[in-house]
């Protein structure tokens, strides 16, 4: 294929991209003009179709293709955007600013080459590459992991964080030919990849990689996200019953289950912003790759937003950052002393369908080599640090995540295909299917079923609520649940709280941090909200951090747990009934008994026997919950919220002063 030979061998082919999307039997070739823009809203999305050049099927204009069950956009490509991690600053989030630009390739020429022809034209020999090792050695990375576990997760900064290091190499070969050979190896050597790609920019910078994960896509108003977490190595699968038992243990492992649930919650927060009624959860599924199997969910919802706004509101994937997202950005900036370039950003293909509607297909930019014109190579890899992480385990994870791309560059030997059980055969086993689906048995049905607009009845219909957001966008999910109960909901950050008296209910919402640290502006703001509502006997609900601030105002002692309850579902006694609820906390209030006399009336406490740790409390016109009723981990969240809010509003209905 002369086109590929020219792109990889001509002196100056201009910017181009080669894309092989999941399941496609062709390679897409995009060429055009490159521009640098400052904001995602400035990404060009032309009305016209790319060029008049003949496509692989001989037509003069490339027709739209049909979406498949995975939700791939039905569009003609208009723009390919490389969104760097530093774009976080557009949302006001912290990041190490390395100056990496937001580059946009406006597509002027588009071809589809049959995959077998493309593979025959790509270089089949990888040039010499010299391994320079990781920029942070294993010992130093172990120390870094231990510090994040102790000083961040252990102090309530969040439930998980992704900290990266960089595998370095160099070559004297032409970067495009090296990238072309690596692309060929990635296409032929790995299955289950969402996008395999090569992007060449003016000046010689070249990216090549294989991203397993869709971040977000939009097609015909359907927005989808695809959180992936959990890894099973196929080499651990023995032949016969042993392989089946290993897979069943993996699917039942609480650490693996909870990690995926945490990521699911974090992406539901994003869907709460970009989808009209939030996201519906589909799955879980097994995602089979050549040497690994992951677990994943799909999230789907309807949106009327411009696709560039969808991109902005979903910056960036929690699987590459952490949770809650804004504080994760701060933690990453504290521990990573070099910029991420494009790692953790997205490669976004924007287009239009046959009717002119906007489409988007955006994989996460990771599992990728970034090659400079001078032959310097960087392969960034990060470990997801959670409460159960170990430094040795996370060191091994970064080696494994960098391994695929390093193998494609000739720096690692590809592992032999496992002689054990075939994962695809095991996946069809009835016991495996039952165990996988059992993950949903105690999740919230609110997020697992499609929600259509329908008349709502009940005592909460038409009542107004203000949710004060202390930098945890769980508040978006909470807003959707309260709206489903008929309430009219406003969400405001702690930095811009309006008059509280205009609302029937005020929710002091969740956020990261130490609830006793009044120098933290979020904690101080929540303290003001709690004081104002309690002093006027006005209806108040505290959730997580807001509940801790309320508890402290009521005179309860606060305690930092020895083991954080981050992303942890638990069965707890709530005022005489057992409920499965989801915790995302490091701190807890402690109560000496189940009934407390306070300046604001008698308070009933749901607490853990022995420790006195408070799960929830309620008094005349106020209540607080340490867990997240809106979380997918809380089995009957809408019902719990209905009961709590109705109980809070009842004193006001009976004539208690609210003004």
Structural features, described:
It is a single chain. This protein has 659 residues and is of the alpha+beta class. The protein folds into 2 domains: 2-221 and 304-410, Anthranilate synthase, CATH 3.60.120; 454-653, Rossmann fold (3-Layer(aba) Sandwich). 28% of the residues lie in helices and 31% in strands. The strands form 3 sheets. It has an 18-stranded antiparallel β-sheet that branches. The chain has an 8-stranded mixed β-sheet with strand order 20-19-21-22-28-27-26-25, sandwiched between helices. Strand 12 and strand 13 form a beta hairpin. Helix 5 (241-252) packs parallel to helix 11 (430-437) and helix 6 (254-274) crosses helix 13 (474-484). The longest helix is centred in the middle third of the chain and has 21 residues, at 254-274. The relative contact order is 0.12. Residues 52-74 have low confidence and may be disordered.
Q: What is the CATH H-level superfamily of the largest domain? A: Anthranilate synthase
Q: What proportion of the residues is helical, as a percent range?
A: 25-40%
The count of domains is 2
- Mean pLDDT, to the nearest integer, reads 91
CATH class of the largest domain: Alpha Beta
Q: Which geometry do the CA atoms define?
A: globular
Q: Fill in the CATH topology of the largest domain.
A: Anthranilate synthase
Annotation, overall tally of beta strands: 28
Distance between the termini: 77 Å
Radius of gyration, in angstroms, nearest whole number: 26 Å
| Structural class estimated from helices and strands | alpha+beta
Number of helical elements = 16
Second CATH tier, the architecture of the largest domain: 4-Layer Sandwich
Low-pLDDT regions: 52-74
Quick one: biggest sheet? 18 strands, antiparallel
Percentage of residues in strands: 25-35%
């Amino acid at each position: 294929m002369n086109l590929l030979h020219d792109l990889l061998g001509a002196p100056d082919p201009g910017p181009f991209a080669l894309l092989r999307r999941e399941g496609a039997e062709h390679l897409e070739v995009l060429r055009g003009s490159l521009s640098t823009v400052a904001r995602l809203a400035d990404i060009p999305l032309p009305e016209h179709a790319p060029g008049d050049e003949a496509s692989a099927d001989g037509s003069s204009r490339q027709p739209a293709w049909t979406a498949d069950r995975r939700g791939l956009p039905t569009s003609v490509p208009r723009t390919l955007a490389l969104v760097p991690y530093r774009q976080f600053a557009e949302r006001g989030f912290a990041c190490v600013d390395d100056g990496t630009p937001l580059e946009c390739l406006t597509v002027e020429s588009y071809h589809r080459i049959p995959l077998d022809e493309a593979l025959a034209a790509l270089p089949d020999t990888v040039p010499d590459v010299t391994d320079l090792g990781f920029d942070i050695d294993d010992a130093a990375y172990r120390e870094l992991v231990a510090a994040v576990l102790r000083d961040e997760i252990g102090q309530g900064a969040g439930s998980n964080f992704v900290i990266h290091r960089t595998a370095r190499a160099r070559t004297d070969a032409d970067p495009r030919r090296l990238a072309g050979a690596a692309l060929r190896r990635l296409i032929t050597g790995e299955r289950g990849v969402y996008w395999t790609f090569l992007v060449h920019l003016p000046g010689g910078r070249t990216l090549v990689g294989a991203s397993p994960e869709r971040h977000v896509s939009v097609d015909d108003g359907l927005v989808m996200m695809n959180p992936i977490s959990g890894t099973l190595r196929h080499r651990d699968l023995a032949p016969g019953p042993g392989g089946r038992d290993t897979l069943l243990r993996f699917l039942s492992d609480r650490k693996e289950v909870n990690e995926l649930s945490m990521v699911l919650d974090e992406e539901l927060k994003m869907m709460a912003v970009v989808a009209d009624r939030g996201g519906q959860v589909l799955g879980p599924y097994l995602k089979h790759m050549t040497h690994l199997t992951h677990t994943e969910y799909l999230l789907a919802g309807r949106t009327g937003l411009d696709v560039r706004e969808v991109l902005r509101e979903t910056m960036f994937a929690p699987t590459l950052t952490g949770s809650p997202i804004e504080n994760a950005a701060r933690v990453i900036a504290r521990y990573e002393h070099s910029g991420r370039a494009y790692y953790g950003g997205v490669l976004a293909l924007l287009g239009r369908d046959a009717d002119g509607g906007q489409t988007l297909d955006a994989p996460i930019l990771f599992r990728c080599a970034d090659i400079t014109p001078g032959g310097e190579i960087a392969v960034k890899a990060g470990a997801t640090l959670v409460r159960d992480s170990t430094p040795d385990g996370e060191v091994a994870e970064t080696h494994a995540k960098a391994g695929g791309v390093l193998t494609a560059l000739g720096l690692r030997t590809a592992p032999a295909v496992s002689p054990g059980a075939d994962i695809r055969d095991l996946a069809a086993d009835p016991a495996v299917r039952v165990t996988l689906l059992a993950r949903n048995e105690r999740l919230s049905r609110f997020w697992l079923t499609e929600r259509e607009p329908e008349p709502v009845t009940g005592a909460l219909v038409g009542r107004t609520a203000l949710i004060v957001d202390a930098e945890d966008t769980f508040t978006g999910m909470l807003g959707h649940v309260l709206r489903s109960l008929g309430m009219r909901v406003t969400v405001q950050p702690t930095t811009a709280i309006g008059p509280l008296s205009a609302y029937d209910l005020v929710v002091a919402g969740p956020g990261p941090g130490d609830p006793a640290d009044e120098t933290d502006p979020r904690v101080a703001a929540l303290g003001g909200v709690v004081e104002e509502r309690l002093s006027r006997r006005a209806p108040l609900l505290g959730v997580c951090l807001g509940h801790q601030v309320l508890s402290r105002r009521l005179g309860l002692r606060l305690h930092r747990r020895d083991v954080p309850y981050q992303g942890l579902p638990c069965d707890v006694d709530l005022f005489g009934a057992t409920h499965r609820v989801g915790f995302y906390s490091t701190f807890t209030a402690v109560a000496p008994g189940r009934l407390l006399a306070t300046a604001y009336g008698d308070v009933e406490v749901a607490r853990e026997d022995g420790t006195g740790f408070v799960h929830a409390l309620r008094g005349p016109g106020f209540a607080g919950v340490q867990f997240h009723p809106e979380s997918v981990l809380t089995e009957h969240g809408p019902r719990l919220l209905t009961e709590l809010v109705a109980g809070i509003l009842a004193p006001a209905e009976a004539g208690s002063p609210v003004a």
